[in-house]
Amino acid sequence: MIIPVVMAGGSGTRLWPLSRGNYPKQFLALNSQHTMLQETLLRLDGLPCDPAMLICNEEHRFIAAEQVRQLNKPHNGIFLEPVGRNTAPAIALAAFNAVMQAAEDNQPNKEPLLLVLAADHVIEDTEAFQAAVLQAQTHAQQDSLVTFGIVPQSPETGYGYIKRGQAIDNAFSVSQFVEKPVLSVAEQYLASGDYYWNSGMFMFKARRYLEELKHYRPDIYEACEKAMQVRHQDMDFIRIDADAFAACPDESIDYAVMEPLSQQDSDKGNQTAEQAVVVVPLDAGWNDVGGFSALWQVSPQDEHGNAIQGDVKTLETSNTLINAGDKLVAAVGVENLVIINTKDAVLVAHKDKAQAVKTIVNELKSESRPEATFHREVYRPWGKYDSVDCGERFQVKRITVKPGAKLSVQMHHHRAEHWIVVSGTAKVTNGDKEILLTENQSTYIPIGVVHALENPGKLPLELIEIQSGSYLGEDDIVRFEDRYGRA
């Protein structure tokens, strides 16, 4: 049986201001009604798979869990990385977990196959993708480490490449992993027909991956093994020893395992069915959506080549990507632009220069601007809030609480709060009193008073919160009780 491992980390700064540190692109619905993470999970339907295992960081845990819940799909645990350490350690955690689960289920001879996927890729042809996975399964069961090579459509300079060797049962041995080339070299690769784009997707036995990791990078193996010794479940999440994992080197699976192992094959002249590293070609409309030009390519376009989302009016405009957000956007007499509107930021860029948005993000970070990391609308395990307005000593938020959800029991040292219910029912703890509020009713929470907010109803609770005081930062919260483990 295949265990999908979905890598849901990353910050996606090349798609700012849509994608930000606390809500990166894998959690956005960029080219369909589902988010990229959800599309990755839906793409597995029909394959002989166990529920997927997810890997993400602490900040994104509730977003990931909620998006899986929305699909009404079971999962195999959501691993929380205490710090980012790249793909080789992350996959090692998944491999250790799969082996440990097999032992705990009294199936010590079970050979879990890991299908490693990124949560932020577009794959248009699900049937072709699934056919490639089944082909990879055949080779992985024979102890090969399999990578998926994307059949190139153009001489891209933003991807690494895989050079194929001898054909082996509808796949190929790997002759060489190649770094991102300059354009002239990429054109040669495309013309030769011997090269694939490196997709960053893999399949192998969990045990085999750990064996090769231990051989080539024992430092990573030992750090991950130590981190897994204190593995424990926390609701949907799997937590590990943070200090042990923080000591792990930062390395990709390509550098740590795949490249040295493929080089060993080449040095030995090994060209058999037992090839250690195999590449399975994948021609399925793959795109890693690494920037706005790529997003424009994978988005539906009108007769003028414009990819439009939201309330947009165009005149004499062509080959332009426009995301209107919550406003009317009008574009007149322009071409080859990226126009992105969000509640707190607007980006206008030439498509050919849109990758440079990373420079803007780095500037914002150096200035400690919140727009680099946070959207105005922030998601929490209980719902979300939108910072509608703010000024000196006040802030206004629109708060949405999911049915049955409850905010932590808390108090603030520096601010008072006024709550006005717009719709739904609020159960409010205000000091030693507990009250129910409905539409158009309100309450006042003085500074220093312990309080809590809960939605006891079956519909979302909408309310307006007005904060006033000398300090309004999110860190002015003392939590006494929290059902989401944040107290």
Question: What brief labels describe this structure?
Answer:
487 residues, alpha/beta, Spore Coat Polysaccharide Biosynthesis Protein SpsA, Chain A, Jelly Rolls, six-stranded antiparallel sheet, five-stranded mixed β-barrel, 25% helix, globular
Tell me, what's the shape? globular
Query: How many extended strands?
Result: 30
Indicate the percent of residues in helices: 10-25%
Count, helices: 11
Widest sheet: strand ordering: 20-21-22-29-24-27
Question: Mind sketching the topology for me?
Answer:
Blueprint: E1 2-7, H1 36-42, E2 53-57, H2 61-70, E3 78-81, H3 87-104, E4 113-118, E5 122-123, H4 126-140, E6 145-150, E7 161-168, E8 171-178, H5 183-192, E9 195-205, H6 206-216, H7 218-228, E10 232-234, E11 237-239, H8 242-246, H9 253-268, E12 277-282, E13 286-287, H10 292-298, E14 307-309, E15 312-315, E16 321-323, E17 329-332, E18 337-341, E19 346-350, H11 357-366, E20 377-380, E21 383-391, E22 394-401, E23 409-411, E24 415-423, E25 426-430, E26 433-437, E27 442-445, E28 451-454, E29 461-469, E30 478-481
Parallel strand pairs: 1-2, 1-4, 2-3, 3-11, 6-12, 14-16, 15-17, 16-18
Antiparallel strand pairs: 4-9, 5-13, 6-9, 7-8, 7-9, 8-12, 10-11, 18-19, 20-21, 21-22, 22-29, 23-30, 24-27, 24-29, 25-26, 25-28
